[in-house]
Write a structure and sequence with these properties.
Elements (H helix, E strand, L loop, with lengths): L7 E5 L5 E8 L2 E2 L3 E3 L6 E5 L13 E7 L4 E2 L6 E6 L13 E8 L10 E2 L6 E5 L2 E11 L7 E6 L15 H41 L11
Antiparallel strand pairs: 1-5, 2-3, 2-6, 4-5, 7-8, 8-13, 9-12, 10-13, 11-12
Length: 221
Amino acid sequence: NEGQPIEIIDVGLPDGDYEAVKADLDGTEMGDIRPSTELAYGVEVHLGDRAIATGKSGTLHLTALLKNRVFQDDKDAAYASLEFSPTWYGSAYTSGTTHLICEFVLPGGVNPDEPRYHDLQFTSSRVEDERVHYVWDMPQASPSEQYTFGASFPKRVMERLAEKPKGPGPVAVLIGFLFELMGKALPCICPLLFVGLFVWGIIQSRRRRMQYLPPSVGIEG
């Protein structure tokens, strides 16, 4: 810790579908775990009298059961897909590098030649207890950068797949885009509208001056 005493540690989670969260700091169980007030999805671990003082260090272990995280693969109808991003923190709160390790233990029944990594290739793989392991080992990772790890494997080994949340329809997307465009253009439209009204007023004034009264004939009394 290079700053003020660390009293609370936030850990992000993919969504709100989680349970059985447990944490310990250097082996001491942390019983005060709450939904995060800083993250859309995640928890905050209150360290209490175990707060990490300036110049000191500590290791937080956190486990959670995340449900409904395996989806239908977008590129192969016979495959399932899984992605995960470990927690990262704002650059204003971190310095240096971090040793980041992410390991996927795929379901039993997947042959070693069947899984596929996504955009970021794993650094090593192995078969242990008849299950394929993908490991991403990054000794010089940035603590303030998001890393997304992913793998696909035959969905025959899954009893079911989670349903992806449905996004807004095309009409809703178009309406939202138009409102967003109008909102962005409003600062430019207002001055133009004012100038337009001013010019229109001048033109109307000139037109009124060009309109003569109709001729009339009168008899002297």
